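Dear H.,

Thanks for agreeing to be a second pair of eyes. The structure we're designing against is below in token form, covering all 701 positions.
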């Protein structure tokens, strides 16, 4: 009893001193010749209400209802001061960012009124009073934790210039909330107010409010808060944890008041409901996306944490996936990570400038419907460094003005959302198609700015890779030229030796059979070697193409005859089978393509050659039913020299065929599916392009 009386006297003196100190600090703050800013007004009210609380506590003790009400008002004034410090004078934007967190803490503090009213109106005995005390302690701890997190972010988020003026305010309020947290933690654990700690509350508050009043009396008008992007998530996490603990404590108290069977049934039912909600709600990717978008929309002035986004971009491009993804796969993934898009696709320009589909990331169905971007979109991207919002493009509100309708895979019913250009030094290196995020939203200025910057960075990686490939190809061509020089030299020597042997063989003219056989063999070998030398000389582009009217059916028949018994193709001829082309070059291209088709097809499988055309143009299709080629091989290796699927091949057959056809003004196209086969299409100029005078003279002849 003597100890209890001693601590009561200490508490009385402590809180009396606190009330006097708060009154003196308020008077001193009022007399300071400074403008009445928001934080100064909030601080003055906090001093006054804290002094009132200390006086009431000294007079009535901690268990009185009036004391608890005064403490609620005191805590609300402290929260108002924290909000005013976040606002930083006239800056309303910073206060709005954390308003939701502060409002949540205010709501929790106001719940004290419900607890106090229930304790005062319901006389349910000592057990109910103890439960109310524990619930009230949990509320106080929750508010203290949230306030400490806010104060930490207030100090960390302040600029280095203003941090000195913020330091004393943050330290003072942190000391108050930290003491309150420990005080109510001890109350919750023991089930009653700890007399020793309660007696020291007044002294702690008085000491802490001295530097607070001095800091508010200084000139802190230049203080601005730079909001931390983690403040809301940390605070909300703590609030959710505290709310969960509060709900558990309240539920436990309610269950204790129920009968045994009812309590057990309620416990099992609550556990089943909790597990069901956790299984359906927490793993939901859509819920997490909605939560992130909502928090970024209402709590921050900037949606993106640029430092985090740039580090993630560097990590994605620099490291790739576990399987070592190629750059063409990492580029759409890096872009999709920024906007939380579930899938993306990369389009790269072909030699004609068309943006063709190169790679997809988590979009397997796109390759079945898409070959290339529409020419109108590709033309707009080649001329403008502009992120295409497909919603605006469909509605005609884009920078392009009136546009043609988009194909089905880009319309409003599709998953397509935006197209980001990849530009490097004003050259379009490609484009990335992004799918709609799980939580659909409108693109804004921040999306456009960040996506354009990231697009330029990714374009530089693609340009660097293309430059490296070009250097490697040049080195291979150099090696190929040296190799061909050696081959030509050896063939020339062999041809000379055979010519000399042919000349010496004439000495055996007395033997008619030997002479006839030898001369025939040597003549054939010499002709073949000279023909091979002429063929190898074509790689130097020494011969200009001779464009003339070519009857395609007759030419295909000659090529078929050159294959002999191995020919298993079927020729399907429709329309006008004439075209303007270089007969020798076209014949050589057909030999390459048909031979490749035979090599890729199973034994005895047919190769179909279809000829179609009119006076405008003609085409030749070479179709096989072989293994086919995947998109990566078509993009990177089909026309790459010295890359061959055959162990004894040079890998230049398709490349030579394409260059020969281009030289005569045509195009070589390819379509292939793995497991189905390949179609090469040769597009040639029609006979209508032949000069009139040449056509009339030919017809007259």
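And this is the sequence the design step returned. I haven't edited it by hand at all.
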């Amino acid at each position: 009893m003597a100890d209890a009386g001693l601590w009561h006297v200490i508490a009385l003196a402590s809180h009396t001193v606190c009330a006097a100190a708060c009154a003196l600090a308020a008077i001193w703050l009022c007399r300071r010749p400074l403008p009445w800013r928001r934080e100064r007004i909030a601080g003055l009210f906090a001093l006054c209400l804290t002094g009132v609380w200390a006086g009431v506590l000294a007079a009535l003790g901690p268990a009185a209802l009036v004391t608890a009400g005064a403490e609620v008002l005191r805590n609300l004034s402290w929260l108002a001061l924290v909000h005013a410090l976040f606002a930083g004078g006239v800056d309303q934007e910073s206060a709005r960012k954390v308003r939701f967190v502060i409002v949540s803490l205010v709501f929790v503090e106001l719940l004290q009124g419900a607890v106090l009213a229930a304790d005062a109106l319901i006389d349910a005995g000592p057990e109910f009073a103890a439960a109310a005390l524990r619930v009230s302690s949990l509320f106080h701890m929750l508010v203290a934790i949230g306030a400490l997190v806010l104060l930490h972010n207030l100090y960390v988020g302040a600029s280095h210039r203003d941090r000195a003026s913020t330091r004393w305010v943050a330290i003072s309020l942190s000391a108050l909330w930290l003491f309150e947290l420990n005080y109510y933690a001890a109350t919750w654990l023991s089930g009653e107010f700890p007399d020793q700690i309660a007696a020291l509350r007044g002294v702690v508050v008085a000491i802490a409010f001295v530097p607070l009043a001095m800091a508010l009396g200084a000139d802190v008008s230049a203080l601005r808060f730079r909001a931390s992007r983690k403040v809301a998530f940390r605070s909300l996490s703590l609030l959710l944890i505290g709310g969960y603990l509060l709900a558990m404590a309240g539920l436990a108290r309610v269950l204790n008041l129920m009968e045994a069977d009812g309590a057990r049934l309620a416990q099992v039912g609550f556990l089943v409901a909790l597990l069901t909600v956790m299984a359906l709600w927490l793993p939901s990717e859509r819920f997490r996306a909605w939560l992130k978008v909502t928090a970024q929309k209402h709590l921050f002035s900037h949606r993106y944490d640029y430092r985090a986004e740039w580090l993630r971009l560097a990590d994605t491009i620099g490291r790739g996936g576990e399987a070592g993804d190629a750059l063409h796969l990492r580029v759409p993934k890096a872009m999709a990570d920024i906007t939380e898009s579930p899938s993306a696709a990369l389009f790269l320009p072909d030699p004609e400038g068309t943006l063709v589909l190169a790679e997809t990331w988590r979009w397997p169905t796109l390759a079945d419907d898409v070959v290339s971007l529409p020419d109108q979109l590709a033309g707009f991207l080649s001329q403008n460094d502009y992120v295409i919002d497909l919603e605006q493009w469909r509605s005609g509100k884009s920078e392009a003005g009136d546009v043609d309708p988009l194909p089905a895979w880009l319309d409003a019913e599709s998953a397509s959302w935006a197209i980001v250009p990849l530009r490097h030094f004003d050259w379009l290196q490609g484009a990335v198609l992004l799918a709609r995020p799980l939580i659909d939203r409108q693109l804004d200025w921040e999306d456009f700015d960040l996506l354009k910057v990231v697009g330029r960075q990714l374009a530089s990686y693609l340009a660097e890779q293309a430059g490296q490939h070009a250097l490697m190809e040049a080195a291979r061509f150099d090696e190929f030229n040296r190799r061909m020089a050696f081959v030509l030299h050896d063939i020339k020597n062999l041809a000379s030796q055979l010519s000399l042997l042919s000349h010496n063989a004439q000495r055996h003219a007395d033997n008619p059979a030997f002479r006839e056989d030898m001369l025939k063999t040597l003549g054939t070998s010499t002709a073949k070697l000279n023909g091979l030398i002429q063929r190898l000389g074509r790689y130097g582009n020494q011969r200009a193409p001779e464009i003339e009217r070519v009857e395609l059916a007759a030419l295909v028949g000659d090529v078929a005859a050159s294959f002999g018994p191995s020919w298993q193709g079927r020729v399907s001829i429709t329309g006008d089978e004439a075209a303007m082309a270089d007969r020798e070059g076209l014949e050589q291209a057909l030999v390459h393509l048909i031979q490749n088709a035979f090599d890729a097809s199973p034994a005895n499988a047919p190769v179909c050659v279809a000829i179609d055309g009119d006076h405008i143009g003609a085409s030749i299709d070479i179709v096989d039913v072989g293994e086919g080629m995947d998109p990566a091989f078509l993009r990177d290796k089909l026309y790459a020299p010295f890359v061959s699927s055959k162990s004894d091949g040079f890998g230049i057959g398709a490349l030579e065929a394409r260059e020969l056809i281009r030289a005569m003004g045509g195009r070589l196209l390819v379509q292939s599916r793995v497991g189905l086969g390949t179609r090469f299409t040769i597009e040639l100029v029609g006979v209508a392009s032949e000069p009139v005078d040449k056509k009339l003279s030919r017809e007259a002849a």
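Two observations from my side: The longest helix spans residues 445-504. Residues 484 and 536 are 8 Å apart (CA to CA).

Warmly,
E.
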